[in-house]
Each structure stands twice: as structure tokens, then as C-alpha cells.
Amino acid sequence: MRPKCFIAVVFFSCFTLSAFAGDAAIPPDLQVSIFKKVFGFDKAIQPGSLKVAVAFTDSSAALKDQLIKAFQDSGIAASAVKEEQLSTSLNGVNVLYVTPGVQSKQICQKNGILSITGTPSLVESGEASVGLSVLDNKPKIIVHLKQLKAEGHELSANLLQLAKLIQ
Amino acid sequence: MRSFVWGVLACAAIFAATATAQMDFQFHAKGEIVAFAAKDFIPQDNGLPTASVRLAKVLIHNGTYEGETSIPLSELNRRTPLLKMHFKLYRGPKRLGIFTYEAVPEEKKIKKGEDYLRAIPVDKDAAIKALTANTTEQADILNLLNMTMDEATAAVKNESKLNEALAKAEADEIALLQKGKLDNKPLIFLPVSAEK
Questions:
Q1: Residue A25: closest C-alpha in chain B
Q2: Cα separations (Å) of B184 from B4, B135, B180, B181?
Q3: What is the pLDDT of residues B101-147, one digit of tens each?
Q4: Taking the CB of the first residue and of the last residue of chain B, which one, N or C, has fewer CB atoms within 10 A?
Q5: How many C-beta neighbours within 10 Å does residue B182 have?
Q6: Separation CA A108–CA A90 (nearest Å)
Q7: What's the mean pLDDT in A58-76?
Q8: Strand B31-43 to B49-61 pairing
Q9: Looking at residues B58-67, what average pLDDT do you find?
């Protein structure tokens, strides 16, 4: 019985790891650099009006700090907003970085805020509209078209042709 | 010094991109020049995008862009025997956009077997406008997406250094222009073969 349990645990661990492999993290600096370029293709974001907020939970507080620093280092105004405060703290924000565990879909749609993330599964589930993943050891942009439209944003075809699109 | 040169070249690249893509800026030079414009981007096997370019004669009067005309094939062949219709795009250190350089005027003697492009002066406003030009942005992001994670991470770090050099080059260049030292003079001559 014990060997069977051991094998089951090993199998489960392997399965779990492989499931998370698709969410391999892209370094915050690289994420910000790519997102910064993506913003230039968003017709709803006027140059000079960019204001980013990072939505986080207790479990993603460390990631939030790295992202805030990366955004600020690249010259983008960024603030941190805890999930519970999302409904009251997004004044003037037009881009929301969504970390794992944050539910912000409705708020982004209601306020016309572009949701971005470094967690590809959040884009695949429609929780965020633009994300980054790693494909063949290269960064890849993922766009959830329906969510993007619901948030009132539109990316130019020049960018969409470079991205993985989710209908 | 090297970073300054790269910075100046980057300025020239984005400036010339603006020249043909937006056509709403002022040149410091006068008369006619021949400029390249990025026309299309084609992914290549080696991962680097390639720009299909067009050449046009740009008309300048009193420092203001007035329009452009196409160049007859015979003249094109005579002026630019070595300019291929496709150029590699470069960004960052050793990845600088060369598709936007101005060709050296005919009167400039070119050594046999060598071809040159001329970097033209740039002002701050034109550089800022060019930074929002879709052509440049698409090339930028395509470059980044074609890199491996390690390369992309390193490129982002290098880019910040390049931007610092670019800002310094712009400031130096503007200072020189204000002194009138660079009017109608090429800033630098770059062997095309070295950049391919």
C-alpha cells in the first residue's frame, strides 16, 4: 500500500508542477518593458495619461513590491491597491495589473480599465485581458479579446498579430 | 564616446522614421535629401525582423518639410547601388535601427567598395514623436518577443543603459545645434557594410 501511495504522490507532484509550468514567471522588469510597449498600441490610452495600479492579496504582496519598483523605474506612475480596496482606490487608473487571487474582472469592465497580468492562466480564464507567458523559452503576449473589448480597450492589429489570441 | 555614437545613431534612426511616417516635423537641413522609410516588417529565420524600405526624395525649404517625391529607378540605382531593399533592424547595443538613415549626398565621395548612410541631426520633439511611432514600436516589441528569456532580460537592462546614452546624446546634440555648429552638416558617417 505504501509504495502505491508514494507513486501516487510523486505522480500528483509531477502533474501539479507541469500544470504550473505554463505560468512560469517572467521577471518583473521584463514584464514592465513589454507591457510599456503594449500600451503604445492601445488606442484608449493617451500618451501621458498612463496610470497603473497593482492589485494584490496577502499572498502576492512580495510580487506587488517588485512590480511597483519595475514600473516606477521605467518611468510609469504605479500604485498598489489591495483587493478589498479596489472599488474605492482606482481613481484615474487606466491599467490594472492583476496578481493571482485577485478578482477584478467586473471592476475593470465597469471603469474601462485595462487589466494586465504576468500570470497567463488569468488571461485564459478571462480574469485579465492582456498577459505574458513563456513559450519555447521566449516571452509571448496573450490577449483575451472578449475581455479586452468589455474593458473598452482596443489594441492595434500590428500588436495582435504578434500575440496569442483567446476569443 | 562609444555610447555617445550609439546614442546619436539611435536619435538619427528614430528621427528619420518620423520623417517618412509622420511628415510633420522640421528638418535642420535644407534642400533635398534622400530618406528611407520602414515599409513593412518581415520575420526572418534568425529571429531578427527585417524592414522592407522605400526611398524618397524629401523636399526641405527653410528648414520645413514640404513633401516628397519618388525617385526614378535610374537615379535610385545610381545613388544607392549598395542599398538593398531589406535591412536588418537593430535595437539596443548592436541592435540599432539602420533603416532610417539618410543617404550621403551624391557630391560626397565614397570610397570604392564602401557605402555610407548619414545620420541627420535630431531635435527633442521629433525624438519624442518618433517614440510613439507604430513602426518603431512594432519593431521594438517584435525584437523582444523573438529573444529567449535570458536575451530579453539582458536586452531590457541594456535598453535602460541605451536610453540613458540616448538622452545624453540628445542633450549634447541640442546644445551643439543651438550653437549652430551642426546645421547642414552630417553628424556621422556610418559604413553600411559594418551594420548589416
A1: B149
A2: 20, 27, 9, 9
A3: 344 444 444 343 333 333 333 333 443 344 334 445 666 777 788 88
A4: N
A5: 17
A6: 10
A7: 90
A8: antiparallel
A9: 49
- The radius of gyration computed from the CA coordinates of chain B, to the nearest angstrom, equals 16
Place of cell 536619435: B11
| pLDDT score at A91 | 87
Residue B22: is it exposed, middle or buried by C-beta count within 10 angstroms (0-12/13-18/19+)?
Answer: middle
Per-residue pLDDT reduced to its tens digit, B78-92? 544 333 322 333 232
How far is Cα A146 from Cα A143, in angstroms, rounded to an integer?
9
Residue A37 and residue B140: Cβ atoms within 8 Å? Answer: yes
| Gap between the terminal Cα atoms of chain B | 22
Compute CA distances B162 → B3, B91, B93, B176, whole Å.
8, 9, 7, 20
Higher pLDDT, B54 or B97: B54
Give the minimum alpha-carbon distance from A29 to chain B in angstroms, rounded to a whole number: 7
Residues A119, A101 contacting (CB under 8 angstroms): no
DSSP H or E run through B31: strand B31-43
Query: How far is residue A110 from each of residues A89, A103, A106, A129, A166, measured CA to CA in Å?
Result: 14, 13, 6, 14, 21
**Nearest CA to A107 among A93, A117, A118, A119?**
A93
Residue B187: closest CA among B122, B121, B100: B121
CA distance A156 to A42: 7
pLDDT of B56 over the 80 cut: no
Q: State the smallest CA–CA distance between residue B7 and chain A in angstroms.
A: 18
Q: For residue B145, give the nearest of A74, A141, A158 by CB distance.
A: A141
What type of residue sits at position A139?
Answer: P
